[in-house]
Structure prediction request, 467 residues.
Amino acid sequence: MYIVQVAAECAPVIKAGGLGDVVYGLSRELEIRGHTVEIILPKYDCMRYDHIWGLHEAYHDLWVPWYDGTIPCDVYCGWVYGRLCFFIEPKSQDYFFNRGLYYGAIDDQLRFAFFSKAALEFLLQTQKRPDIIHCHDWQTGLLPVMLYEMYQFHGLDTQRVCYTIHNFKHQGVAGIEVLFATGLNRETYYYSSDRLQDNTHLTAINFMKGGIVYSNYVNTVSPHHAWEARFSEVGCGLGETLHQHQSKFGGILNGIDYGVWNPEVDPYLPYHYSIDDLTLKQKNKKALQERLWLDSNNQPIVAYIGRLDAQKGVHLVHHALYYSLSRNAQFVLLGSATEAGINNWFSHEKAYLNDNSDCHLELSFNEELAHLIYAGADMIVVPSNYEPCGLTQMIGLRYGTVPVVRGVGGLINTVFDQDHDYNKPPEARNGYVFYQTDDKALESALGRGIDLWYEEPKNSNNWFARA
Prediction:
């Protein structure tokens, strides 16, 4: 099949979170299976141009209808680690993607509505006729709406749309101006409850709801999260819409790209190792301790890698830090905050613990360091309030780092408790799981992991003993 991915991110050239990893990894896997895949992305001024090979202008002056006029775009083409990508650059006084950021502008809804329309216009004008258009998250939620309400009458009439929702929290709620800008126009028609009208704010339209209603198939990124989205508050108001379209909605578990996340060949690691011999994992642990100026002693390292925000259970990340130190474990954190208050909180902790040789807080993101932490840590905590799938625990497992997770979303589908998951044989149990959101719940799981680490010489079934 010929598949076109349309997304706001693709790692490593554009990465704000897990979406970028999935778009790249899925495209690579589909190509391995024999499909032809192309990716359409915005051309941000702040993306990593050093990860693009052979970038050149592929289409000049793509005129995209917008409000009562048109906006010209140039479309560039280049290769991102083997994936063929097209980057749309609007030549507009609005500077949609020339703002030094991916998300967070006051007019994000208009920016990505334009991107979705430009992607369709590019397919139309270049005679590209994919079998499947695969859209991702709210940023492309209007694409299937415009495809079936407008573009199918101009030549894009055989395409089918798969719409993947990675995060229900951000849905693209906007006002009537988006309808006028895109040419959808018919306010009464689209403000119908069975089309684009937001289920909570009845005077607004909802991009994600449009994607659900108009796509041929809708999925989220784990089976359990699909259940949560329909039957709990995790659906953020879209549960009824998902119920109405349940026949075309499901959960498909994310995966990780073993070409990128592989300790046997990882270029960021000083020592390579495999599941058959974890001896060199311990050398990576020593390298991590040396790099972060931690004591090189016989203590377990507990790590956290990810955003510092409410979704990720930031209060439990904070508690895991001090609990680990109290249990004679080291703690390493790599992540940046999404809110000023959280950033100030962890900046204070970083300053307070600056002279503690058993912990290190890196309040930023560093790809090279992330790989070394996955390889050098003994345990990794993922205490999310909600987690559609989660890649952190999967990467941890790939690197022989035991995950300690809260039992939500895709974490339930991938981590099985060492002591309590009686539905799995002992050899299939791979981590520690807790379910509540309080400190004691976290301690019940993380404590068992630390206990097992210190019992290493006594326990032949101990994961840590294998290292």
